[in-house]
Amino acid sequence: MALPVRTAARAAAGICALWALMALSACEGALGTSPPHAAPANPTAEARDGRVDLAWEPVTDATRYVILWGNGPTATYDNEITGIEGTEYTHEGLENFVKYRYKIVAETSGGRGPESLAVVATHGALPVTPARELRLAPATALRSDPFLAGAWT
User: Fold this and answer.
1) Which of 3, 27, 133, 151 is 20 to 30 Å from 143 at the Cα level?
2) What single-letter DSSP state applies at residue 153?
3) Which position has the higher pLDDT, 91 or 4?
């Protein structure tokens, strides 16, 4: 007994869908994992003398991270630091009083995920003018000044 055309078409579609699912599962293992779907959350950049300490929250299944960075007045990220395996990094050898911008990207064997929010650090202490010693003259010296003499009466 033959199946009605409509039923046969549904059965064929179901078999095709099952084959596609099985093939996709087999390919996923052969091709590696997919890139991370999330960006590293809560990135921080703390400025120090000649360096910036960076930290961020881990991304599920990420095997390493990339730091995109740049400096100057525009928000460009022309430089990369690759192969970072943890969620902290110290960027050293930097000039003080320069603004540095950073974004973090998680990686897997399947590629890179989205970029984190940008963080900015200007490292190095701000120049401080040394305090000057203030010496007050004794009150008798002020009274003898002809300009201030009227102020004491």
Assistant:
1) 133
2) -
3) 91
Contacts 24+ apart (CB under 8 A), 87-90: 87/40, 87/55, 87/56, 87/57, 87/58, 88/53, 88/54, 88/55, 89/53, 89/54, 89/55, 89/65, 90/51, 90/52, 90/53, 90/54
Total count of residues recorded for the chain = 153
Say yes or no to pLDDT of 9 above 80: no
Work out whether the CA dihedral 85, 98, 75, 77 comes out positive or negative.
negative
Say how far apart CA 137 and CA 42 lie, in whole Å: 56
SS3 57: coil
Q: Dihedral sign, CA of 77, 83, 89, 90? A: negative
How many structural domains does the chain have? 1
The amino acid at 104: I
- Asked whether residue 137 is domain-assigned, the answer is no
Mean pLDDT (whole number) for 136-141: 59
Which pLDDT belongs to residue 70? 95
Domain membership of residue 70 (yes or no) is: yes
